[in-house]
Design a protein that fits this description.
Layout (H helix, E strand, L loop, with lengths): L1 H5 L22 H25 L4 H24 L5 H4 L3 H16 L9 H21 L17 H20 L3 H19 L7 H12 L1 H19 L4 H22 L12 H24 L10 H5 L1 H18 L12 H24 L7
Length: 376
């Protein structure tokens, strides 16, 4: 994620980036977000089972799910609109508005240490963060006729899409618990929706598609639910039956890949359009990549090689947002500090983005030591 977001695609090879809307193809960047959705779904049965084991009831967990969903929607929409600011009408430059936005987000959603014993201090930070975001929303003006220049939900931003996918998968687990069959039927339902939507057969009022379009299009819920199914398979067989886990998940991955290429006869592979072929191919890749990692880390117990990634893995939202904060801080100086982006060499551009990703991982580790880590 950090790597492909940083790549200077005018120089970098096309297969590392996003494919154009009308192209029947996909690059590495077109797979990254589906991978994120898969991971989110994969975590759901373990995270919610832990809450049940801790004595939480369905009402408590439902409230937690809704709060997390709303939080992701808010952050996603704010990030989406940060690129629409009219500095003159807003009274703030895009850089200042965005940096203030991230400051507010970190104040509200930081996982404060010893928060029970520092209730008033933590509450004060969070209330101040809310006030900052409210001020920014009030000041915002895009200068565009859409929504009279105010914030738009648009496509919700990546975190907003993640929020919708999480909402579906989390409530699916609450309803079906460890039932693979019921979860698979729901997953199939969303694939059917995706196919029908891609055939332009769904005609609904604009207000409905604007709000619930992510669910109606089906692709985001499908990819998150695919991860949920993988998590349920692991829960069912446990590590002693790892061969059944590998065979089940690998078989599913191969089936999805094959289905994706069959669907290519009717739908191009396109992330921008969220086509069924792209959805199935990405989900197949997710399952196959995961089963390889499962074999290495869970079965063979070989985890040391990934220790350098641990800070970003444990604090993925912090890493994701921190990268943006550093970008805007660099932009505010007016100094072209990311000199590798000025090169015409593919090797230098790729190596620079790899180094950038590594540095953000280390920054996340530093922030963690300073008790700055987002938790939604």
């Amino acid at each position: 994620m950090l790597f492909v977001n940083d790549l200077y695609m005018r120089v970098a090879p096309a297969w590392l980036g996003h494919s154009p809307e009308t192209a029947d193809s996909m690059g590495l960047a077109d797979w990254v977000f589906p991978g994120f959705l898969f991971i989110a779904g994969l975590a759901v049965p373990f995270a919610l089972s832990k809450r049940f084991s801790a004595g939480e009831n369905t009402h408590d967990i439902s409230r937690h799910i809704i709060i997390r969903f709303i939080s992701l929607i808010i952050i996603g929409v704010l990030m989406l609109n940060s690129g629409r600011i009219d500095a003159e009408l807003t009274g703030l430059s895009a850089i200042i508005w965005t940096l203030m936005m991230y400051a507010g987000i970190f104040m509200i959603w930081n996982d404060y240490r010893d928060k029970e014993n520092r209730f008033f201090t933590v509450t004060g930070f969070r209330l101040f963060g809310m006030a900052v975001l409210a001020f920014l929303v009030f000041k915002f003006n895009s200068g565009e006729p859409e929504n009279n220049g105010s914030l738009i939900t648009g496509w919700w931003g990546y975190l907003g899409l993640l929020g919708w996918g999480y909402l579906v998968s989390a409530f699916a687990y609450l309803l079906f618990r460890d039932s693979i069959l019921k979860t698979a039927l729901l997953t199939g339902f969303f694939m059917a929706l995706n196919i029908i939507w891609s055939l332009d057969m769904i005609k609904l009022p604009e207000i409905i598609t604007t709000v619930f379009g992510t669910l109606i299009q089906g692709n985001v819920p499908f990819m998150v639910l695919t991860g949920l199914i993988a998590g349920l398979i692991i829960k069912k067989f446990q590590i002693n039956d790892f061969r059944k886990v590998i065979i089940s998940i690998a078989g599913l991955g191969i089936s999805f890949l094959a289905a994706g290429f069959v669907l290519r006869n009717w739908f191009i592979i396109s992330k921008i359009n969220g086509t069924p072929s792209w959805v199935m191919i990405c989900s197949g890749i997710n399952l196959l990549v995961f089963v390889i990692l499962y074999r290495i880390t869970d079965v063979k117990k070989l985890t040391g090689w990934a220790n350098f990634l641990r800070p970003a893995v444990e604090n993925s939202l912090t890493a994701y947002l921190s990268a943006d904060v550093i970008y805007y801080l660099i932009l505010s100086t007016g100094i072209p500090l990311l000199i590798y982006k000025q090169s015409d060499s593919q090797l230098i551009v790729i190596a620079g983005s790899l180094m950038w990703a590594f540095l953000i991982v280390r920054l996340t580790a530093l922030l963690q030591r300073l008790d700055i880590r987002l938790k939604i």
